[in-house]
Design goal:
heterotrimer, A mainly alpha (497), B mainly alpha (145), C mainly alpha (500), A: 497 residues, mainly alpha, two-stranded antiparallel ribbon, 4 strands, 2% strand, globular, C: 500 residues, 21 helices, 2 strands
Chain lengths: 497, 145, 500
C-alpha cells in the first residue's frame, strides 16, 4: 500500500536532487541537438551546452535548506549534509574542466565529441548521486552509473586500438571488483536486514561483539575494499591504472584521476565512518572493536604510495608516469582515512580539492603539448622550456605542487595529511610518506629537467592557443593561491566534519 | 560456527589436491611423444578444429541487440506501474504518475531517435561525406595465423 | 628613512624586483640586470641600518611583526631578529648585492637567472627572519626551487646530476623536519589560547609541551630528525656528498651563495630551532655533534688536499671550516666557543665568498680550474694574486685576518669541554694551511706556464665585488667586536637555556 504522503514527500525530495536533474536535462538537450543538427560540426555548441549544464547544476544548491547530518530525503536513500553539499560543486568543476580541456586540445574527434560531453555529464551525475547516497542499493547504483559510463569514456576513441584495450581492461577489472563489493553489500544486508547505512551501523556495533558475526564483518569489509581500492587506484587493485590512463584520451585521463577517484574517497568516508567507526568526543573516531581496518588501510596506504612512486621512476610516457603518480597520491590520501579523526577527513577533502587543480593542470599540459605537435613521451619535452615557456613554467608549477613543495597548494595538502597521521601518532606512516615525497621528487624532476635543463632535440615551434593559456591560468591561480593563503578553504573543510 | 567453515575448507583443500593428482597421474601415464602433429593442434587429442576460431561477427548484431535490450528493460519497468496505476488514480496522483512514465519512455525514445539518426540501425552505416574527410580509416589487415 | 615593517620590506623587496623583471622585454638584458641590482641595494641599506640600530643588550626579538596568517592552523606571519639573525641577514644582503654584480656576465636566459636569483634572495632572508616554525619551513623549502634551476640551467658540464643531487639530499632533511614540526605542533598547547602552535618562541617554553612530547624517545627521535635535516645543509660528514658536486657545477655567483649563506642555514637552524626546542637533547647530542664536527674538519681538509680542481678544493675546505662551527656550537660549558662558532659562520661567509669569486675570475679567463695546469700566475696577474693571497691566508687562519679569531675562539672554548677532540681538531688547521699554501705555490709561484702568459688582469667590476669582502676580512681580523658584541647577549641566553 502506498502511504498518503509518499508522493508528496518524494516531490519534496526531488528538489534535493536538483543538480542531477539539471544535468539530465542538459544531457537530453545535447542528445536532441545531436539529432537535429549535424553532430560532427558545432563542437563549440556542445561545449557551451555541457558547461552551461554543469554550471546550472550547482545553482539550485544554494536555495536548499542548511545541510545537516541527519537530513535525509527520498526514503532515506540520500543524505543532505555538508559533504554532499560541497561535493556536488566539486564534481561540477571536475566536469567543466574536463569539457574545456577536451575543447581546447581537440583531443577527441568531432564525430565522437557530442557523445563524449554526454558521457562526462552522466558520469558527473553518477558521482553526485554517489556522494549523497546513504543506502547500499543506491550506492551500488550510483557506483555503477559512474563506473560503466567511465568505461565507455575510456574507449571513446573507437578507432584507437590502445583506447579500446584500455577500456576492455577497465571493464574487466571494474566488473570483478564491483561484483566483489556487491557481495560485501549482500553480506552486510544479510547481517542487518536493511540496506540503510544508519540501520546497519547500529547492527554492526552490536554484531561485532560476537566472534562469528565479527568474522562476517571482516569479510564484508575486505570485499568493500576491493571496490573502493579499485576506484581509488590503490594497491592491490591498481594494475589497471597505468594502462587505462595511457590508453584513454588525455582529458578523460585527467577526469578519471580526479573525478571517480575523489568519489571513491568520499565513498570511503561515507561507508567506513558510519559503519565501522564510532564517534568519540566529536573529533576522534575509533574503529569498531575487533575490526582493525585502520591498520590494514595504513599498510595499504604505505604500500600504495611506495609502489606508485617506485614504479613511476622508470616511466618515459608522461601519462603512464602521471598514472603511477596518481597511484602514489591515492596512498597519501589514504593516510587521511586511516587517521580516524575529523582532521583526517578534512585533510582528505582538502587534498582532493588541491589535487584537482594540480593534477588536471599536469594532464592539461600533456594534452596541450601532444596536440601542438609534440608527443606524450618525455623525449619530446627536451628543451621545451625555451620553446614554450608559459606552458612549461605552468607544468613545473603543477609538478612542484604534486611533489608538495611550498608555496604551492600541494604542499598545504600534504601538511594536512601528515598532520592527520601525526595527530593520531602513527609516526611510521608519516615517515614513510615523507621519504616517499623524496622519491617522488626524482621522477617529477625528470620532467622539469627535460624541459629546462636539457637541450632541445627538435626545433619545431610549439604554438599553444590562447584558449589553452587561459585554461592553464585558471588552474594555476588556485594552485598558487591556495598555497599562499588557504584559510578560506580551511574554513570550508573545517565546517564539514 | 567455525566448524561450518571446515566443510568449505576441506572442499578447497580437496579441490587443490585434485589438480595436482590429475596432473601427476597424466604425467605418469601419458606416453612421452613430441613429434606427433596432433600434439600441436588446439585440443591435442586428435579432434581437429573445424574452421578458424577467429570468426568475425558483424558488429551490428551488438548494436541492435543492445537497443532491443534497453526497450526490453523499459517494458519490464513500465509493466508493474500499470498494475498499480489503478491505486494511484484513487490516490489522486494519476496525472503525475502518467507524466513520470511518459518522461521515462520519452527519454528512451530520444535515445532511439539518436541511434537512428546516427545510422546505427542500418545494416551498413553511412558516414556523412564532410565528416569522412576528417577520418583516417586504417587499412584492414587480413588476420593470419 | 626606514619604512615600517622593515623586515618584510627587506625580505620581499627582491621579490618585487623579480616580478618586475618578468615584464621586461627579452631584448633588454641590461635592464633586467639593472633591476636586479636595484632590487638588492635597498635591502642592503636596510640591513646596514638594522645593524646600527640593533639593541645589543636585549635578549629578546626585535623588529617583531606578527599577524595571523592561517587561523585554522594557528600559523602566524611572524618575523623578528635577534643577535644571531642580524649578522646572517647582513651577510645575505651583502652577498646578494655582490653576486648580482658578479653575475653581470651571464648572457643566456638572463630573465630567468635574475628572477630566480631574487627569489632565492627573498627566501634566504625569510629563513633568517622567520619566527614561526611553519614560515621557517616554507622559506627553507622555497630556497630549493630557485637553487635547483640556478645550478641546473646555468651550471657546468654535470649540472643536471649536481642539481638533482642537491635537491634530493636537502629534501630528505626537509621532510624529516616537516614531520618533527608537526609533532611539535600537536605536542604543545599555547597556554593563552589553548591552541596548538607553530610559534618558535612559545615552543621553546618547555612547559607548553604535552606529556607525550616529554617522553625521552620522542624527543630523541625529534632531535635526530632535526639534526639530520640541518646536518645535510651544513654539511657534516657523512651527509656532505652533495656539496662538492653542487659547488663545482654551480655558476660562480651561485657557488658564493651556496657556500656563503646556504651552509650557514644548517647551523643557524640548529641554534634557532634545535637548541631552544630541545635543550635537554642538545646536551645529550653534544658529544656526538662535536665528534661529527671533528670528523668534518679532518676529513674535509684531507679531501681538499687531494683535489686538483680549484672549486672542489674550496668546497671541501668549506666542509672543514663548517666543522669548526659545529664543534664550537657543541660546547655549553662556556660561551667562548659558541661565540667563536657564530663569528666563524660570518667569517666563513665572507672568506669563502671571496674564494669562489676568485675562482670564478680565473675560470672566466682560462675556462679550466685545474690547479696543476697553472703556474707563475703572480707574474701575469699580480693584483689577482694579491687578492687570492689575502683570501687564502684568511681561510687558513693567519693571525690578523678574520678566520683566525673565530677558529681560535672555538678551539679555546671547546678545549675546556672536549680535550682530545680539540687537540685533534688543531691538526685540521695545519692541514688547511698545508693545502692552501701548496695550492698557492702551484698556481701563482713557480715557473710561468706560457699558455696563460697573456691572461688579462682582474677587471674593475671583479675588483669591486672583492674589495668590500676583503675589507671586512681585514677589519674583523684586527677587531672582531662589531660582530661579537652583536651576538654576545643572544648567545649567552642560548647557552643558559641549553644548560638549563
Amino acid at each position: 500500500m502506498i502511504p498518503e504522503n509518499f508522493i508528496q514527500s518524494n516531490l519534496q525530495g526531488i528538489s534535493f536532487i536538483g543538480p542531477e536533474l539539471i544535468l539530465t536535462l542538459a544531457i537530453l538537450l545535447i542528445l536532441l541537438v545531436g539529432v537535429l543538427l549535424p553532430y560532427w560540426r558545432h563542437r563549440i555548441l556542445f561545449t557551451i551546452l555541457a558547461v552551461a549544464g554543469l554550471a546550472g547544476s550547482v545553482l539550485p544548491l544554494w536555495k536548499l535548506p542548511q545541510p545537516a547530518p541527519d537530513l535525509t530525503y527520498l526514503s532515506n536513500l540520500f543524505v543532505w549534509d555538508w559533504l554532499t553539499f560541497l561535493s556536488k560543486p566539486f564534481f561540477a568543476v571536475v566536469g567543466v574542466l574536463t569539457i574545456l580541456l577536451t575543447q581546447v586540445t581537440g583531443e577527441i574527434d568531432n564525430s565522437e565529441y557530442s557523445e563524449c560531453t554526454i558521457l562526462v555529464l552522466a558520469v558527473t551525475m553518477g558521482m553526485m548521486l554517489l556522494v549523497a547516497s546513504t543506502d547500499l542499493l543506491m550506492i551500488y547504483l550510483a557506483f555503477e552509473t559512474m563506473g560503466i559510463l567511465s568505461y565507455l569514456l575510456v574507449g571513446i576513441r573507437a578507432r584507437d586500438e590502445r583506447s579500446g584495450e584500455a577500456a576492455l581492461k577497465y571493464v574487466l577489472y571494474g566488473a570483478f571488483t564491483s561484483g566483489t563489493m556487491l557481495f560485501g553489500f549482500s553480506l552486510l544486508f544479510g547481517l542487518a536486514g536493511s540496506t540503510d547505512l544508519l540501520a546497519i551501523s547500529q547492527k554492526v556495533a552490536f554484531a561485532s561483539q560476537h566472534p562469528q558475526d565479527r568474522l562476517l564483518l571482516i569479510v564484508a569489509i575486505l570485499f568493500f575494499l576491493a571496490g573502493l581500492l579499485f576506484k581509488t587506484a590503490s594497491f592491490p587493485f591498481h594494475f589497471w591504472c597505468p594502462d587505462v590512463y595511457e590508453g584513454a584520451p588525455t582529458p578523460i585521463t585527467a577526469f578519471l584521476s580526479v573525478g571517480p577517484k575523489a568519489a571513491g574517497f568520499v565513498l570511503f568516508i561515507r561507508l567506513f565512518y558510519p559503519l565501522f567507526a564510532t564517534g568519540h568526543d566529536a573529533t576522534i573516531y575509533e574503529a569498531v572493536s575487533g575490526l582493525d581496518w585502520p591498520s590494514i588501510l595504513a599498510l595499504v596506504s604505505a604500500i600504495t604510495m611506495t609502489l606508485g612512486n617506485l614504479a613511476a621512476i622508470h616511466q618515459n610516457n608522461l601519462k603512464r608516469l602521471l598514472a603511477y603518480s596518481s597511484i602514489a597520491h591515492a596512498g597519501y590520501l589514504l593516510m587521511g582515512i586511516v587517521s580516524l579523526s575529523d582532521l583526517g577527513l578534512r585533510s582528505v577533502v582538502f587534498y582532493l580539492v588541491v589535487y584537482l587543480f594540480m593534477n588536471v593542470g599536469a594532464f592539461a599540459v600533456v594534452a596541450m603539448v601532444a596536440s601542438a605537435g609534440g608527443s606524450e613521451e618525455i623525449d619530446s619535452y627536451r628543451g621545451l622550456g625555451a620553446r614554450a615557456p608559459y606552458v612549461c613554467v605552468a607544468m613545473a608549477i603543477f609538478l612542484f605542487s604534486l611533489i608538495g613543495l611550498p608555496p604551492f597548494a600541494g604542499f598545504v595538502g600534504k601538511v594536512y595529511l601528515f598532520a592527520a597521521v601525526i595527530y593520531k601518532k602513527i609516526y611510521w606512516l608519516a615517515v614513510v610518506a615523507a621519504l616517499n615525497t623524496v622519491i617522488s621528487l626524482y621522477y617529477y624532476l625528470r620532467i622539469v629537467k627535460a624541459m629546462f635543463l636539457e637541450k632541445p632535440t627538435e626545433t619545431i615551434q610549439i604554438q599553444v592557443p590562447l584558449s589553452s593559456r587561459v585554461l592553464l591560468l585558471a588552474l594555476l591561480v588556485p594552485t598558487l593561491g591556495l598555497g599562499i593563503y588557504w584559510q578560506p578553504l580551511a574554513r570550508v573543510v573545517s565546517g564539514m566534519f | 560456527m567455525f566448524f561450518d567453515f571446515a566443510n568449505v575448507f576441506i572442499f578447497i583443500i580437496l579441490g587443490l589436491l585434485m589438480t595436482f593428482v590429475i596432473i601427476t597421474v597424466s604425467r605418469l601415464l601419458a606416453p612421452r611423444v613430441s613429434d606427433v602433429p596432433d600434439k600441436f593442434t588446439t585440443y591435442e587429442c586428435g579432434e581437429r578444429p573445424v574452421g578458424s576460431a577467429w570468426i568475425l561477427f558483424n558488429f551490428r548484431f551488438y548494436a541492435v541487440a543492445l537497443a532491443f535490450l534497453i526497450f526490453d528493460i523499459e517494458l519490464a519497468l513500465v509493466f508493474p506501474c500499470i498494475s498499480v496505476y489503478h491505486k494511484w488514480l484513487k490516490a489522486g496522483s494519476g496525472l503525475f504518475a502518467l507524466i513520470e512514465i511518459a518522461v521515462f519512455v520519452g527519454i528512451l525514445f530520444l535515445g532511439l531517435i539518436y541511434m537512428w539518426n546516427r545510422g546505427d540501425l542500418k545494416w551498413t552505416k553511412e558516414v556523412p561525406e564532410e565528416m569522412e574527410e576528417g577520418l583516417v580509416l586504417e587499412e584492414e589487415k587480413p588476420i593470419t595465423f | 628613512m626606514l619604512p615600517d615593517h622593515l623586515l618584510s620590506w627587506m625580505i620581499f623587496f627582491p621579490l618585487l624586483g623579480a616580478g618586475l623583471i618578468l615584464f621586461v622585454p627579452k631584448r633588454y638584458p641590461t635592464v633586467m640586470k639593472g633591476i636586479a641590482l636595484a632590487a638588492t641595494i635597498p635591502p642592503l641599506w636596510w640591513a646596514a641600518n638594522l645593524y646600527v640600530q640593533f639593541d645589543r643588550w636585549g635578549t629578546g626579538f626585535q623588529y617583531v611583526e606578527k599577524v595571523p596568517w592561517i587561523r585554522a592552523f594557528n600559523i602566524h606571519y611572524y618575523l623578528g631578529i635577534d643577535g644571531i639573525s642580524v649578522p646572517m641577514v647582513l651577510l645575505t644582503a651583502l652577498l646578494s648585492f655582490i653576486c648580482i654584480i658578479a653575475s653581470w656576465n651571464i648572457n643566456e636566459h638572463v630573465r630567468g637567472y635574475f628572477a630566480l636569483f631574487l627569489l632565492l634572495d627573498t627566501s634566504m632572508k625569510g629563513v633568517f627572519c622567520a619566527l614561526d616554525f611553519f614560515m621557517f619551513y616554507v622559506f627553507w623549502e622555497l630556497m630549493l626551487l630557485p637553487m635547483y634551476f640556478l645550478i641546473g640551467i646555468w651550471g657546468g658540464p654535470r649540472k643536471e646530476y649536481a642539481a638533482i643531487k642537491f635537491f634530493l639530499f636537502t629534501l630528505v632533511g626537509s621532510v624529516l623536519m616537516l614531520v618533527v614540526m608537526l609533532v611539535f605542533y600537536f605536542g604543545s598547547v599555547e597556554p593563552a589560547t589553548g591552541l596548538h602552535s607553530f610559534d618558535l618562541t612559545i615552543l621553546a617554553d618547555q612547559s607548553v609541551h604535552q606529556a607525550f612530547l616529554r617522553s625521552h624517545t620522542i624527543r630523541w627521535l625529534c632531535y635526530l630528525g632535526l639534526f639530520i635535516g640541518f646536518a645535510i645543509k651544513i654539511p657534516l660528514v657523512p651527509f656532505h656528498t652533495w656539496l662538492p658536486d653542487a659547488h663545482v657545477e654551480a655558476p660562480t655567483a651561485i657557488s658564493v651563495i651556496l657556500a656563503g649563506i646556504l651552509l650557514k642555514m644548517g647551523t643557524y637552524g640548529i641554534l634557532r630551532i634545535s637548541y631552544p626546542l630541545l635543550p635537554d637533547m642538545a646536551r645529550e647530542f653534544a658529544l656526538f655533534a662535536a665528534t661529527l664536527g671533528l670528523i668534518s674538519i679532518i676529513y674535509g681538509a684531507l679531501c681538499a688536499m687531494a683535489q686538483t680542481d680549484l672549486k672542489k678544493l674550496i668546497a671541501y675546505s668549506s666542509i672543514s671550516h663548517m666543522g669548526f662551527v659545529m664543534l664550537g656550537m657543541s660546547v655549553f660549558s662556556n660561551t667562548t666557543a659558541i661565540n667563536g662558532a657564530v663569528l666563524q659562520m660570518f667569517n666563513h661567509g665572507t672568506v669563502t665568498a671571496m674564494l669562489f669569486l676568485l675562482v670564478g675570475v680565473i675560470y672566466d679567463r682560462a675556462h679550466i680550474r685545474d690547479i696543476d695546469s697553472f703556474g707563475g700566475l703572480a707574474k701575469t696577474m699580480p693584483v689577482y694574486a694579491g687578492y687570492t693571497g689575502l683570501a687564502f691566508f684568511a681561510a687558513l687562519g693567519l693571525p690578523g685576518l678574520s678566520s683566525f679569531i673565530s677558529e681560535a675562539l672555538v678551539l679555546v672554548g671547546s678545549f675546556q669541554q672536549y680535550k682530545i677532540i680539540t687537540i685533534t681538531a688543531t691538526t685540521g688547521i695545519i692541514l688547511t694551511a698545508a693545502y692552501f699554501l701548496w695550492t698557492m705555490q702551484r698556481v701563482f709561484l713557480g715557473p710561468q706556464n706560457k699558455k696563460w702568459a697573456d691572461l688579462p688582469e682582474i677587471s674593475l667590476r671583479e675588483a669591486f665585488t672583492l674589495t668590500p669582502l676583503a675589507l671586512i676580512v681585514v677589519l674583523l681580523g684586527f677587531y672582531p667586536m662589531p660582530v661579537l658584541d652583536l651576538i654576545g647577549a643572544t648567545l649567552k641566553h642560548t647557552v643558559a637555556m641549553v644548560v638549563g
